[in-house]
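// run 5 | inverse folding | seed 20
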């Protein structure tokens, strides 16, 4: 097995120690020659990197090289895989994305609704720039992108790099949900074969099988309807916010029993309920800043101070393992099946070809080979088309510097609907993002 050279982009992330633990756990499936960390924030990266260096020395002695850098040339030269997880504006801007819509009575969420638009219009420019830089030094590298909002980023990259077949956008949510299914079924996630369709953070499992082809869908549904649903992955199992989110799946399945919903659909199906349960001074970003971020930084400080991982609470999580198994399937032509984000091109036969859809695909060294979904029923088609129009209009607004497209996008979004509310939110987001967003011009409005 050829050993891979990996760069982690956005390595200052609080997810990085979990990713390193996952790389160690998966070293037989995805053996590495080198790991390089890259981040634009040297200080944030250094803390995580110094701890990871110690972890790797102890648990991955066969790794030939580990280093961290803020030099693009150093980071992106001779790379086989780039794992990209950047957050333009950091958690501070995430908090604004959540608070601004909430202050207008709408869902305040990282990737759903106006928050997703705020984040999307920040991410697109940096992602395009980053892909160009990676390609300058490693034209053949696989670029696996986790950067959010994945739906909007994927659409923007589709337009910016139409010929580049080695960029793959992925989300760990379907996998995190499958970890819970696996627990219900007393199986491993890797034993399960899903059927799924939708957009990122906007999809449904239609079937779940095991490798022998047994249909386990009803067993999962019955369990959820009778006993409820909980997170099981190590990263989220004890997190009150994620517990609440997973519990909501029972309500969704009770109201819409046909398919098993992605957890993110709660924001689109129950927006008023979601808003009523939020506290604008303690949104998810604040909880992450005071929770995961502190916990991971303390963990890193402890490892650095002790010079060893002994006594440190380190865990493998699905976020890392999923990305790594995806990479392994691409690198070694394993042909395993994963849910990934690809251009529709007839996969969902009654949806436009140029939609970026989230579906299962066999992953080979020639890229993802998605399976046909066929026609989807009216309810899902209607939901998806509204959301898709929102996503496309956000990306139009970015490339065309068009205020009206952004306003149309928000008005179409199920979490907003009211045009005057959309306008107020948009204007607040513009003010909050003045250092990050492209300028949105109102000329068309004035002309009419
Ligand atoms: C899931 C989603 C990611 C999202 C994350 C947020 O993993 O798939 O796209 O960024 O949740 O989690 P947090 O704990 O930061 O709210
Ligand atoms: Mn996601």
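// decoded
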């Amino acid at each position: 097995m050829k050993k891979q050279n990996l760069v982690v982009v956005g390595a200052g992330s609080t997810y990085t120690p979990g990713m390193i633990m996952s790389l160690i756990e998966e070293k037989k499936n995805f053996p590495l020659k080198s790991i390089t960390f890259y981040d634009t924030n040297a200080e944030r990266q250094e803390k995580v990197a110094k701890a990871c260096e110690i972890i790797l020395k102890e648990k991955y002695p066969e790794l030939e090289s580990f280093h961290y850098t803020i030099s693009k040339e150093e980071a992106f030269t001779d790379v086989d895989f780039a794992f990209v997880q950047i957050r333009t504006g950091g958690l501070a801007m995430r908090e604004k994305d959540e608070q601004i819509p909430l202050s207008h009575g709408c869902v305040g969420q990282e990737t759903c609704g106006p928050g997703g638009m705020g984040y999307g219009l920040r991410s697109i420019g940096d992602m395009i720039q980053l892909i160009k830089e990676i390609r300058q030094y490693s034209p053949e590298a696989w670029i696996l992108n986790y950067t959010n909002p994945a739906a909007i980023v994927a659409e923007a990259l589709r337009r910016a790099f139409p010929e580049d077949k080695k960029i793959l956008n992925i989300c760990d949510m379907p996998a995190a949900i499958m970890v819970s299914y696996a627990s219900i079924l007393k199986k491993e996630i890797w034993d399960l074969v899903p059927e799924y369709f939708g957009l990122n953070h906007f999809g449904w499992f239609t079937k779940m099988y095991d490798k022998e082809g047994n249909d386990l869908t009803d067993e999962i549904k019955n369990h959820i309807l009778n006993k409820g649903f909980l997170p099981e992955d190590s990263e989220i199992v004890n997190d009150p916010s994620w517990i609440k989110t997973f519990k909501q799946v029972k309500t969704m399945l009770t109201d819409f029993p046909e398919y098993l919903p992605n957890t993110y659909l709660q924001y689109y199906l129950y927006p008023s309920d979601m808003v009523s349960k939020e506290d604008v001074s303690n949104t998810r970003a604040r909880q992450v800043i005071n929770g995961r971020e502190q916990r991971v930084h303390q963990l890193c400080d402890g490892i650095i101070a002790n010079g060893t991982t002994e006594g440190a609470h380190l865990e493998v999580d699905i976020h890392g393992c999923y990305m790594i198994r995806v990479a392994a399937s691409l690198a070694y032509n394993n042909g395993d099946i994963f849910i990934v984000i690809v251009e529709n091109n007839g996969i969902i036969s009654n949806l436009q070809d140029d939609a970026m859809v989230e579906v299962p695909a066999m992953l080979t060294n020639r890229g993802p080979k998605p399976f046909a979904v066929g026609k989807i029923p009216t309810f899902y088609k209607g939901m998806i088309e509204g959301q898709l129009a929102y996503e496309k209009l956000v990306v139009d607004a970015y490339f065309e510097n068009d205020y009206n497209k952004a306003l149309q996008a928000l008005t179409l979004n199920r979490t907003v609907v009211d045009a005057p509310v959309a306008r107020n939110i948009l204007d607040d987001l513009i003010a909050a993002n003045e250092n990050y967003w492209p300028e949105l011009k109102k000329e068309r409005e004035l002309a009419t």
